[in-house]
Design a protein that fits this description.
Helix content is 51%, strand content 14%. It is α/β, with parallel strands linked by helices and 207 residues long. It folds into 2 domains: 134 residues, Response regulator (Rossmann fold, 3-Layer(aba) Sandwich), CATH 3.40.50.2300; 55 residues, Winged helix-like DNA-binding domain superfamily/Winged helix DNA-binding domain (Arc Repressor Mutant, subunit A, Orthogonal Bundle).
Amino acid sequence: MSAEPRPIRVLLADDEHLIRGALAALLGLEEDLLVVAEAASGPEALAMARAHRPDVAVLDLQMPGSDGVAVAAALRGELPDCATMIVTGHGRPGHLRRALSAGVRGFVPKTVSAQHLAEIIRTVRSGRRYVDPELAADAISSGESPLSDRETELLELAADGAPIAEIARRAALAPGTVRNYLSSAVMKLSAENRHAAVRIARAQGWL
């Protein structure tokens, strides 16, 4: 008698406890899926992935500490056998491009049903990719961003109105370096200041 196939081991990372708990319960109803760990922040997601070595990491885009794309990029280097996917309530085209560049295999909105999410988990585990069709269409129509990856990252960090010193601390860069990158982004977007640059980039789907 052949042995039962091993279930797909899943890590769930979302800072909204109610959503994460409900999702874990629903995915737990699938016979071939096993939620082995949960996390509420980027650093916790990395720690849990290292400890439990999941087959698939389902990551919220926006989490405390570091976002889902940053976690996916780290896992790509540390645990290449772990497929990553992003679940987001803020599916801007710029996020999709960053995610694909980080090796993410799935990118879906939080409106996806648990049953569909289970299917997508199976898809990315098999080595294939799944991107929500509407998000993919938005990414194509928005055009290429003129911003470099670093300029995009620093504009994201500036989005909440943080001062230069705080942005520099978060990005582990010198304040002068941060000013230079932000000034470059402002010029490329023909914006009055970095706050206007954030608005323009968001409107275009580049953040």
